[in-house]
Amino acid sequence: MRTLLVEDDPRIAEDLTRALTASGFLVESATDGETAWFRGGTEHYDLIVLDLNLPRLDGLTILKRWRNEGCESPVLILTARGGWTERVEGIDAGADDYLPKPFRMEELIARARALVRRAGGRSTGQQQFGRLAVDLNRMSASIDGIPVKVTPLEFRLIAHLALNRDRVVPPTELLERLYGDDDAREANALEAIVARLRRKLGPGIIGTRRGFGYYLEQDG
Fold first, then answer.
1. Could you report the per-residue pLDDT of 41-76, keeping only the tens digit for each?
2. Where are the 4-aspartylphosphate modifications (predicted)?
């Protein structure tokens, strides 16, 4: 779940990155408003976590520009402004959720997951694909009710396929979700992860449409 974190406080940004990464999010960061506006407007993110108090361009201005430009990524606002008028202003500007500081990291993660699920058209974190069950809340997978041990990278791949269950996902998109801008974005790296998952999950779970990409079998 590719996430843009927009936060100019290094300590807060580090804590948020650590927590989101541990929960299966692939985090990319921006520390000023102009950079955030450009990245959010030109790249696709499954989630944007946006602080309002930013240098060069404030968060509400960025959010309004994104929405006017057609950016549909779910946005979770973080701010020290906790009054109801500020919350209304943020929602009116196009925010999907609003979390005032200070906050519990567990609540932020729960809200982030909920926004990603809603954006993917899913009302629940539990997804069933034949013998495979994927729990987006607990970041777990099981076959016939038996838990399968997967790495965070493997789960990110399964989760993205689950959230896009109605289409074939191209390799380039999966690589972007798994590695972001990392140099490891190579096709053979993706093939290795898929092969490893197929050994763990068994046959008939991850399907391939040659030349197009991967998908989860609905009746696997």
1. 888 888 999 998 899 999 999 999 999 998 889 999
2. 51
